[in-house]
Design goal:
about 35% helix, 9-stranded mixed sheet, alpha/beta, about 290 residues, single chain
Length: about 290
């Protein structure tokens, strides 16, 4: 039944003919925006620059964006494709768009879900920066028999459930058939910053590598558009379960495609991916733990 329902979703929602660009290197590095990325940027910058770089979501807000000049950028935040010039409360999206238009003076691919087509965000990029190549992917979640899922995955018609942009990024890079994919800045430690307020509201302090921790405040995580009610603790941990389960499914698919996905984050709660330590040596080898 799950396979039949997934096939119906693909027929209705997915865009046919979607293809992934060929890899430019045998190795790539996916950079998450977790605090531990500071360690990797400080200690393994040379290694990163020897690989094909993939950055995500708010990376354009940092000085490292123009310094690293990443060849690939992935934005999966659905809010990026529903906002417009009059949207308030998401100044970060305005700043990301501005950076992509004004700062990118190198050839770069921007991976975006098919639902983003014709959005304000994409129209501005198309009109403002011809150096950015748009690469669409189908975010349709498919379930069912393994052979069926893997067939749809490989055909770029659907994907596994990606609760975070990092899972999306890893999945897309597996489909680009890199030999090795290195993951940095994937702390996945949100549970350390969860609390319940005196009024029983769920609050989270979301810290990125480009933030100063002391300046980041706890914020309520609302479950409705009118911002009147926050998610329950049960629903929050269910969401975290989906995050970690996504990495398990990703690892199984990567193994099937014979792609090594290696977690090189200096801090990470992800146990589904093999951990490696980047050594400071000739050739910048990765030591498996």
């Amino acid at each position: 039944m799950a396979s039949i329902l997934s096939l119906a979703k693909v027929l209705i929602r997915s865009r046919w003919g979607v293809q992934m660009p060929k890899r430019q290197n045998a190795r790539c590095s996916v950079l998450g925006n977790g605090p531990s990325l500071n360690d990797s940027l400080a200690n393994h910058l040379d290694f990163l620059l020897e690989t094909e770089l993939i950055v995500v979501n708010g990376f354009a807000l940092t000085d490292y964006f123009t310094r690293l000049r990443p060849a690939n950028y992935i934005i999966a935040d659905p809010n990026a494709f529903t906002f417009h010039d009059a949207t308030t409360g998401r100044e970060d999206l305005h700043q990301i768009l501005k950076a992509l238009i004004e700062q990118v003076d190198w050839s770069m691919r921007l991976f975006i879900p098919t639902l983003a087509k014709n959005s304000y965000f994409i129209q501005k990029i198309q009109a403002g920066n011809p150096r950015i190549e748009l690469v669409y992917f189908n975010p349709t979640v498919v379930r069912g028999f393994q052979w069926f899922r893997y067939w749809l995955y490989g055909a770029n018609l659907g994907m596994l459930q990606a609760q975070t942009v990092i899972v999306t990024a890893l999945f897309l890079m597996v489909n680009r058939k890199f030999d090795e994919i290195f993951l940095f800045g994937a702390d996945t430690s949100w549970h350390e910053q969860i609390r319940i307020s005196d009024t029983n509201q769920l609050e989270i302090k979301q810290i990125h590598f480009y933030d100063k921790a002391r300046d980041v405040a706890y914020q309520p995580v609302y479950s409705d558009a009118h911002r009147t009610k926050t998610f329950s603790m049960a629903s929050q941990f269910l969401s975290l379960h989906k995050v970690f389960r996504g990495y398990e499914v990703l690892r199984e698919y990567a193994d099937y495609r014979k792609v090594s996905v290696l977690n090189a984050s200096s801090k990470s709660y992800i146990d589904a991916l093999e951990r490696v330590v980047i050594k400071q040596s000739v050739g910048h080898t990765a030591s498996r733990s």
